[in-house]
Amino acid sequence: MKGRPVTVNQRPAADPLAVIRRLTGSVNNHDLDELVSCFAPHYVNVTPAHPERSFSGRSQVRMNWERIFAAVPDLCAELLRTAVDDQVVWTEWEHRGTRTDGSAHLLRGIVIFTVTDGAITQARFYLEPVEHSGPDADGAVTTLIGTGTSENPKEES
Q: Cβ(44)–Cβ(122) under 8 Å?
């Protein structure tokens, strides 16, 4: 038989977006084992805005999601947008539900995944709690640049 040689025990390259969709389904089904299986054993989570939260390994993935599923029993994850570039999948998420104490759980943000051989090997994590109160745009910029004033110069007509 002519054609491409077949190598025994070679895993076919999986569609990176299919892996992320499988992850989404496992979150929504609260299937911890399936969720953890989406990640490579040497998985690395990088949280640039909060470097102390970065970690590596599937065991931390399992511990995190065990706690999340217990604390938010009706958690639902929605994959809002995606963009794929080879093995990198840019994703926009919304996670919502009700915590066991009755308070609302709402996270939104971006996670940039790297998928290799059908498993997530890295994520750059920018998912944050939604704040329904706080400063407006001027106040937020003032806080960011530390000027102590929130003057809003008006455009001249």
A: yes
* pTM, to two decimals: 0.82
Predicted confidence (pLDDT) per residue in 99-108, tens digit: 999 999 999 9
Name the nearest CA neighbour of 117 among 19, 5, 6, 4.
Answer: 19
Q: Are 35 and 119 in contact (CB under 8 A)?
A: no
Number of CB atoms found within 10 A of residue 149's CB: 8
Residue 109, pLDDT score = 98
3-state SS of 92-156?
Answer: EEEEEEECCCCCEEEEEEEEEEEEECCEEEEEEEEEEECCCCCCCHHHHHHHHHCCCCCCCCCCC
Written as six digits, the tokens of 107 are 């996270």
pLDDT at residue 155 greater than cutoff 80? no
Assigned fold of 16-145 = Nuclear Transport Factor 2; Chain: A, (3.10.450)
